[in-house]
Design brief:
Blueprint: E1 5-8, E2 12-15, H1 21-29, H2 32-35, H3 48-57, E3 65-71, E4 76-87, E5 92-99, H4 109-124, E6 129-135, H5 139-147, E7 151-162, E8 165-175, H6 176-186
Parallel strand pairs: 5-6
Antiparallel strand pairs: 1-2, 2-3, 3-4, 4-5, 6-8, 7-8
Helix pairs in contact: 1-3
């Protein structure tokens, strides 16, 4: 059965997560190398049942929206992208993204997925601000976020403990007007 696509671009689609994705999530989330980049799961073993419960609770509240990132040319999902802390009153949301399919991490997919979620946030939900945070040793993420017009606004010094030392957490954001200006100037 074909995936239910919400938004698509050149190679990437944001699709509705499906039950069959759970087995992939279970394998990827238990990879210690992948866990270095997760906020709450570092050095934990996640059961398949926990992943199934996570799936069952997806998109049940108004303050979180989850999409799977689907790559047409390889006919597979490579992980998820989330809007969390979705605040309609203050018109903002936080981005979480993870691409844990290792053979597809260093490709253009990440940038396209973020550009699609920006379109969703600013052109469909019509929010005013979109922000994210990442751990400072994740320079790969930083480069992608800058390509997607996010700007650093805050650094929480030595905030997360990973790999036997403390690391900064960097907060980046983009406003709707910045997004629209960048989008219009690149067309």
């Amino acid at each position: 059965m074909e995936r239910v696509k919400i938004l698509s671009w050149d190679k990437v689609s944001l699709v509705v997560p499906e039950k069959k994705d759970v087995k992939l999530w279970y394998r990827w989330v238990n990879d210690i190398e992948n866990q270095m980049y997760l906020w709450s799961m570092f050095w934990r073993i996640i059961s398949e049942k926990s992943e199934e419960e996570f799936f069952e609770n997806l998109n049940k509240t108004d303050d979180n929206i989850t999409f799977s990132i689907y790559i047409e040319e390889i006919n597979k999902t490579i992980w998820n992208i989330w809007l969390i802390k979705l605040d309609y009153k203050s018109s903002n949301a936080e981005l979480w993204i993870a691409i844990f399919d290792k053979e597809n991490q260093n490709k253009w997919y990440w940038t396209e997925a973020i550009k699609l979620i920006q379109k969703y946030v600013f052109e469909i939900l019509w929010l005013n601000k979109f922000y994210l945070r990442y751990i400072s040793f994740n320079t790969r993420a930083w480069k992608v976020y800058e390509k997607c017009w996010f700007k650093s606004v805050w650094i929480m010094k030595k905030h997360e403990y990973r790999m036997w030392s403390y690391h900064d957490i960097v907060i980046m954001e983009i406003l709707k007007e910045e997004y629209l200006n960048q989008k219009n100037s690149s067309n």
